[in-house]
Design a protein that fits this description.
Elements: E1 4-8, E2 18-25, E3 32-39, E4 42-53, E5 56-66, E6 69-70, E7 74-76, E8 86-93, E9 97-102, E10 105-110, E11 120-125, E12 127-134
Antiparallel strand pairs: 1-11, 2-8, 2-12, 3-4, 3-11, 4-5, 5-6, 5-7, 8-9, 9-10
């Protein structure tokens, strides 16, 4: 059972805007998730750092989801997270992709669903949300 954190709707994030997420990672963390999309069924970005889950170790897995249909998994091997540590992640929304800014690293994930606005954000798993800001 994955613990569900806060859910945000009506964010209204458009290209050129950024969402910054800060929080604490559980000391015994296995994985956590951040979802960004139109709503809970249309996820433009499923961001899933895995310390040890589903056969992955210290890997960030990203994907998109359209209703019940997942896309192809995208893996990043740069893993700047520590169990029991804090995390700050900024998601920059662009026309064709979302840029994920991590400490010392960034990568792009394509906007596969061609979302013009990102209204929905949630967190799940071994992560406690402390602050959310957007500009």
């Amino acid at each position: 059972h994955i613990s569900q954190g806060p859910v945000c709707t009506n964010l209204g994030l458009k290209p050129g805007q950024r969402l910054t997420v800060k929080g604490k990672i559980a000391p015994n963390a296995k994985s956590f998730v951040m979802n960004l999309g139109k709503d809970a069924t249309l996820l433009g970005l499923h961001f899933n750092p895995r310390f040890e889950a589903h056969g992955d170790v210290n890997t960030i897995v990203c994907n998109s989801k359209k209703v019940e249909e997942w896309g192809a998994e995208h893996r990043e091997t740069v893993f700047p997270f520590q169990k029991g540590g804090t995390a700050e992640i900024t998601f920059g929304v662009n026309q064709n992709d979302v840029t994920v800014h991590l400490p010392g690293h960034q990568f792009k994930f394509p906007n596969r669903l061609n979302l013009s606005v990102f209204d929905y954000f949630d967190t799940q798993g071994d992560f406690t949300l402390q602050s959310l800001s957007w500009e």
